[in-house]
Design brief:
The complex is a heterodimer of chains A (about 425) and B (about 230). With about 425 residues, chain A is mainly alpha-helical. Chain A has 2 domains: about 1-280 and about 395-430, no CATH class; about 290-390, Glutaredoxin (3-Layer(aba) Sandwich). Chain A is built from 20 helices and 6 strands. In chain A, the strands form 2 sheets. Chain A has a 4-stranded mixed beta sheet with strand order 4-3-5-6, with helices on one face. The two termini of chain B are about 30 Å apart. Chain B has 9 helices and 10 strands. Chain B has one domain: P-loop containing nucleotide triphosphate hydrolases (Rossmann fold). Chain B has helices at about 45-50, 70-75, 95-105, 110-115, 130-140, 160-175, 190-195, 210-220, 225-234, and strands at about 5-15, 15-30, 30-35, 60-65, 65, 80, 150, 180-185, 195-200, 205-210. In chain B, helix 8 (about 210-220) crosses helix 9 (about 225-235). In chain B, the strands form 2 sheets. Chain B has a 6-stranded mixed beta sheet with strand order 6-7-8-3-9-10, sandwiched between helices. Chain B has about 230 residues and is of the alpha/beta class. The radius of gyration of chain B is 18 Å and the shape is globular. Classes of the chains: A mainly alpha (about 425), B alpha/beta (about 230).
Amino acid sequence: MRSFYLLLLKEIKEIFFSKTTALFLIILSFMIGYSFYSAVSLYSNASVSAINNPLYATGFEPNIGVFVPSFGGLFLLFSLFLPFIIIPLISLEKEQNTMSILVQIPFSFNKILLSKFIASFLFLIFVFLLETPSLIIWKIYGGHIPWTEFLLLNLGYLFYGIFIISISIFSASIFKSTASASISSILIVIISWIIDFGKDMNISPLILTISNWTTTSRLNFFEQGIFSFSSIVYFIVLFLFFIFLSRCFLDIKFRKKYILFSIITAFLGIITIFYFNFNIDLTESNRNSFPKNITNALLKTPKITIDIYMRREDSRFKDYKDSFLDKLSLIKRNVEVNFMKGKELKDKYGLFVYKINNKFQKTYSNSEEEIFPIIFKLSNIKLQKIKESDKYQGYPLIVKKARLNIISYVYYLFVPLLFLIFYFTRIKFRASKN
Amino acid sequence: MNNLLKISKIEKRYNKNTVLNDISFEIPNGSIAGIIGPNGAGKSTVLNIITGFETFNNGEILLKNEKIYSFEDKMSKFSYMPEKLDIYPEFFVKDFIYFIQKTTKYENNELLKKLNLFSVQNKKIKTLSKGYKQRLKLFLALNNNKKIVILDEPFDGFDPIQLMDILELIKSENKNKDKTFLVSIHQLYDAEKICNYYVLLNEGFVIAQGNINDLREQFNITGSLESIFIEALK
């Protein structure tokens, strides 16, 4: 156990005391500072007209208005820079042949991999600590922190960071040189972005399906305040897959059957997750679902079957999906959606048929204002009026420009200086022993 | 002396290129055996195969007449100093020694003294001369209880005086700690000074093996190892 602790300590020192890490942290500090300053400034300016207007104020949500834009840069930084910190942990061992020292001590490949992963994970946790000053500043300004949404957002970035760590370790275990490993790991990330781009450009139905399973689209759930069970399992499956592959490639004997096994298992795992699409809207405003009274009523309705006479690519269907269908699926599991085909589709194009309790009603409207009365009428449920206390009030906040400068001092000066002092005093401390 | 290690009909191919051709040899227990051969003879490949760092296509490796398969098994039995090893350049010597001593749970300060590593303990490894880097590599190979020590070109980088100390150290480890050494050397003069058993390798073939008298008898030569080797190459 002590031996493993020493190995872990070696990895922690390598990751925390490197020049690359110091640079990474300084860039991160500048980036969070800039994003946080811009987000607070915009939020504050927009709040001026909302502060005395309760209806307008409901649109002011600190998580989506301030925290997502402030910390969204973590996604970019993890994607493009984190591999440069993680990869040398393995590739340098390979380049310098020091792996031969570790295995002779003897540490098994599993222990070596585990120590490198734990060290990387601790670094990831450390990165999140950089958010703390912005939370304190936000509190000083008198801002509200929606903790559930905030923690969910960070859970998403944590999973994404772990994913980047796993592909970095994987690339480093395949390639001997640091450069090749870094390029290949960034390539994996870029492929995911290309698929997302293909989705936005509506290139093909296949791309549309695949794009639901890219890391960016899964991360989007966390950013939107949706607890997505399938996304969490998705990230765990990907992590295990890449770590298992790394283990196979690190070994002296190249075991094809294990690699094949892991590919098939991961594929089946992801397909299985697809059928357990369990999501909960954790936002304070319920912006991803419906107001509380509607949600309660919908939960009481029996199974809803919807026949849709419309193509998926149709912009009206996209609106319908965003404003109604996706939200409905977040709160209600017993919903059956049928896309009609062939002649029926052609003849009745644009129609929606709602079926509840052997009763049905047709409509051409895709607006939720017309859909809800149909659903509640078919299920004989009377919609309760929403209580004033249950309504989301919103949190507009005005921050004076002079007070905004605290952010600059902290993130452009204090934090980078702290990292520089830490880095150079460490070197000086070591040098003084000579 | 009994045979400790037996290499039997090992064949190694890289794609269609055969680098080791059915090589077989035995290493006597308690010996300092030298794998001798010119550059490109396959010395490092043989050592990498024995220690498990490289796979092979055919043949078997026997330790005390028992097949040895797994990499973990090999790592627990053999102490190996590869030729290409750039020990953590950013580490301080002291930290590295501490790391090795604590993780292997083996502290031999006498060894450190003999290798003269105390004098450089506060230096970064990357600032050490080649000779000291070699000493550190030797420390790595000798700082354990393993009875078989495999060294790949351990004498590169030493001046003649330093080399004398290192040869003495290996002889004393061999004699006092009952360690068997398998050392690859391309300098025949150095080999003659330390080895008591030889495996002559050329272009992936074992061309002769035995102690110096066996070799002299085999090639009917009374001269040095160099003259035997030249004769063997003919």
